[in-house]
Amino acid sequence: SSGINAEWPLRPGDEIVRNLVENSTSFNVKTEFSKAKWLKKKIGKYQPNIIVKKPSIRLFSSSNISKLRPDILAKIMNNANVWSGSKAIVVECKDDLLTSAVSQRVGDNGTVVQIFEQKLPHTMYCKWLDFSKQHMETALKYYPIKFLAKLRPNVEEGNCDGSDLANDESTDQPQELGKRKRDAKPVNFEDYVTVYEQLKTGNFDSLVISAFYDPFPVLELLWDSLRFSGNLVIHSEYLSVVVECANFVNNKGCSELSVVDQWFREIQVLPGRTHPAMRMQTGGGFILSCTKIREGIYEHGSDSPILPELKEAPKPAEAMT
Question: What tens digit of pLDDT does each residue of 123-166 get?
Fold first, then answer.
C-alpha cells in the first residue's frame, strides 16, 4: 500500500541525482546559477551527510537551540573581561550557554556562580563540554534566585523572584515566560550556605546578566557582590529595562558606561552571487557594559579615600585660592 517494492535495489545518492539530471527536460535550459541551486537542493535531499563535531561554545551558539547569536556571545564575553582564575557571577535563563562559556574561560582555578530561577540549575552545555570532575565540583557553583534577597535584607524582595518581565508596550509578552516547572526536590537554603557566604563577601570580578525578565532587581541585589574595578554586562531584549539599569549604575559609580544594539547581517559570498541573505536576524538585543568604581582619591593599596567625593564643585575664585 505504501508503493515501495522490497525487491527494488537501493541506489546511492549520486546515482539518483545523475538520473534526475539526465531525465530533466529543463536542466540544460537553466543558467549556471540556477543549475548550481537546483543541484544543491537535490543533493541535500538524496545525499544527506552526517558530520560529527566536537562540542564547543561556538558550535552551541550557532545552533538553533541557543538564545544567543555568536556575535552577541562574543560581545558579552569581551566586555565581561573574564580571564583564567577569575571569579564571575552569571544570571541567565533557558540554558547555560553563558555559564559554560565563562566556566571554560576561568578554568579549574576560577569560580563561576550561576543564579538560576527554577528548581534545578541549568547544566546541559556544561555536561556536553565534558569538564573535569574537579571543575564541576569546585569551579561551578549554583545559587537560587529566590534567595538573593537574603544578601541585602534592606532591599525589598517582592520583585526579585524573576517572575516580573520588562514592560514594553510595543511587544506582546507571554505572562508565564521564564516559569517552567520541573519535578525536583524543594530548594532549601541550607544547601547553598557556602555560596551565600561567597556572594556576601563581594569579591567577584565579573557580573553577567542575560535573562528574559527584568534584570534590575537582580542587579540591585548583586551590585555589592561585584568588586571595585569589576566588569558588569547586562543583555536584554528591551531597551527600557537596560536604560533603568544604566541610570542605577551611573548613580552608584561606574566608568566606561555604554549601551549598544548589536546588529547582525549574514552575507552570502559566492562567485558572482555576493549579496545579503534573504532570511536573517537583525536585532539581537541591547548590551550594557561598565566598570564599577569607587569615587574619590585613594592611596595605592588603601580602601579609604584620601579626598572623598565633592558634593558641590568649588567656585572658580575658591579654586584659585
Answer: 888 888 888 888 888 888 999 888 888 887 766 544 454 444 33
Facing residues of 305 across strands? 298
DSSP string, 113-156: EEEESSSS---HHHHHTT--HHIIIIIEEEEEGGGGGGT-TTS-
Tell me the average pLDDT of the chain. 77
> What are the b/e assignments for 29-44, b being 16+ CB within 10 Å?
eeeeeeeeebeeebee
Beta strands in the chain (DSSP E): 87-92, 111-116, 140-144, 204-210, 226-236, 254-263, 267-268, 275-276, 283-292, 297-298, 305-307
**Contact call for residues 25 and 38 (beta carbons, < 8 A):** no
Write out the three cell numbers for 174: 507571554
Q: What is the pLDDT of residue 113?
A: 92
User: Under a CB-based contact definition with an 8 Å cutoff, are residues 20 and 38 in contact?
Assistant: no
Maximal C-alpha separation, the chain: 105
- Asked if 147 and 193 touch (Cβ cutoff 8 Å), the reply is no
Cell of residue 65, nine digits: 537551540
Which residue ranges of the chain lie beneath pLDDT 70?
1-12, 64-65, 154-185, 280-282, 295-321
Residue 160 Cα distances to 83, 249, 251, 294, angstroms: 29, 18, 21, 26
| Residues 6+ away with beta carbon under 8 Å from 308 | 296
With 0-12 / 13-18 / 19 or more C-beta atoms within 10 angstroms meaning exposed / middle / buried, residue 156 is: exposed
DSSP for residue 265:
-
State the residue for C-alpha cell 545579503: 276
Residues 121, 143 contacting (CB under 8 angstroms): no
Quick count: other Cβ atoms within 10 Å of Cβ 118? 18
Cα three-residue angle 151-257-158, rounded to 5 degrees = 30
